[in-house]
Write a structure and sequence with these properties.
Order of helices and strands: EHEHEHEHEHEHEHHEEEEEEEEEHHE
Number of strands: 17
Structural class: alpha/beta
Bound molecules: 1,4-dihydronicotinamide adenine dinucleotide, alpha-L-sorbopyranose
Strand content: 15-25%
Shape: globular
Largest sheet: 9 strands, mixed
């Protein structure tokens, strides 16, 4: 019998919990957890169903009973922790954004390749079966030639002036917030489903609240209102390497929209549209009739784990992602696994958006 994969989870917030549930559902075990302090790691052991707490992230990385290091911390810690894990010869799952600087993302990608470890980034929206269905339809030619790729990723959790989080602070989250935090998911998903690559873009960004309370994790006193250096909104116009046009609106201040990642791929024969808040269906638009296609109705994939009509969701995507990481570790990397190369691509897109917004020019995505 093969041994269960042993995961070590660094960071015990929203993602630490989601990763831990996914590890268990994928048949692995969380042997060790590390958090911001030894005390918060001990407090997280039961919540994450972990074997034990490590006193620090470094101790977890060095632990003999950790095969895969999951980095679920604020963004500024991703590079040093991922590098340490790679140097220790561990497989790594590092949360997005892989790095808050494009050069660092490239350095990490090269280091992982040189070490020969599995290095993945949870662009998990790829794991909705309806997204895979859209991708298959595009590859099969059902939509014809794609001409227009468009959509939005809208949230409202930072809509009020008193809303705050470590992501607001550029030193912890990166110089781009709305695009770097959620715009990268949209671009990854649309490039994945369409097969196109964003070749050049122009962009505008907007900061709607110029001061917000300092987040607790920033090391400054909570309650003090600090100047905000990161954007709440980004709009991007782009052209792809295969001649399509596109646009996307990214916002964290749109009242009523919680996690509305929506895209439409418009081709010469059909349009395909996906909404993350209603992920069990894919909309297929035709000249004479439209169809709402249920997940699993026409072609069940390995990602369909429940019968049609029993909704699958976000946590299922994470389970599928960890499952595929485990398959890659076992020597059989599945098609579509998001890797550090995809994290590097996201960092390049983020750098291009910031550059385009600053200069007001079209920017080539490197
Ligand atoms: P969070 O604020 O809920 O949790 C962050 C955790 O990191 C906290 O438990 C904090 O105590 C811990 N931490 C802080 N400093 C640490 C240190 N030095 N060592 C160990 N732990 C430390 O944040 P959340 O939402 O869980 O985000 C974490 C990461 O996951 C971010 O990079 C974010 O961009 C990414 N994320 C990705 C998602 C996806 O769909 N792939 C969804 C949500 C977040
Ligand atoms: C907050 O905007 C957040 O949790 C992002 O950090 C995630 O990447 C996104 O999947 C959901 O929203």
């Amino acid at each position: 019998m093969t041994r269960r994969q042993r995961s070590g989870v660094i960071g015990a917030g929203f993602m630490g919990e989601v990763h831990s549930r996914a590890v268990r559902a994928a048949g692995g075990e969380v042997t060790v957890v590390a958090a911001a302090s030894p005390g918060s790691a001990r407090a997280a052991v039961d919540r994450l169903h972990a074997g034990r707490a490590a006193a620090s992230a470094e101790e977890l990385i060095a632990a003999e009973d950790v095969d895969i290091v999951h980095i679920c911390t604020p963004n500024h810690l991703h590079v040093p922790l991922a590098l340490a894990a790679i140097e220790a010869g561990k497989h790594v799952i590092c949360e997005k954004p892989l790095a808050i600087d494009a050069a660092d993302a490239a350095r990490l990608t090269d280091a992982a390749a040189a070490a020969g470890v599995i290095a993945a980034v949870p662009f998990v929206y790829r794991f909705y079966p309806t997204v895979r269905d859209a991708r298959t339809r595009v590859q099969r030619g059902d939509a014809g030639e794609l001409r227009l790729l468009h959509g939005s990723y809208l949230q409202d959790w930072l809509a009020a002036p008193d809303d705050t989080n470590w992501r607001v602070d550029a030193a912890l989250g990166g110089a781009s917030r709305a695009f770097g935090d959620i715009g990268v998911h949209w671009c990854d998903l649309v490039e994945f489903a369409s097969g196109h690559r964003i070749a050049r873009l122009c962009a505008r960004v907007l900061t709607t609240h110029d001061r917000r309370p300092a987040p607790a994790d920033s090391g400054t006193r909570t309650g003090i209102r600090e100047r905000v250096g990161t954007e709440d909104v980004a709009t991007v116009l782009f052209e792809t390497d295969r001649g399509a046009l596109g646009s996307v609106v990214i916002s964290q201040i749109t009242h009523g929209r919680k996690n509305r990642l929506w895209f439409s791929l418009d081709g010469s024969e059909a349009s395909l549209s996906f909404d993350q808040e209603l992920p069990d269906t894919l909309w297929v638009g035709g000249r004479d009739q439209n169809a709402t296609v249920f997940r699993g109705a026409t072609r069940a994939s390995r990602y369909d784990v429940l019968p049609t009509g029993h909704p699958q969701g976000y946590q299922d995507c994470f389970t599928a992602f960890v499952n595929d990481v485990y398959a890659a570790v076992a020597g059989d990397p599945p098609d579509g696994l998001p890797t550090f190369a995809d994290g590097r691509r996201a960092a390049a897109l983020t750098a291009a958006v910031l550059d385009a917004a600053k200069t007001g020019s079209w920017v080539e995505v490197l």
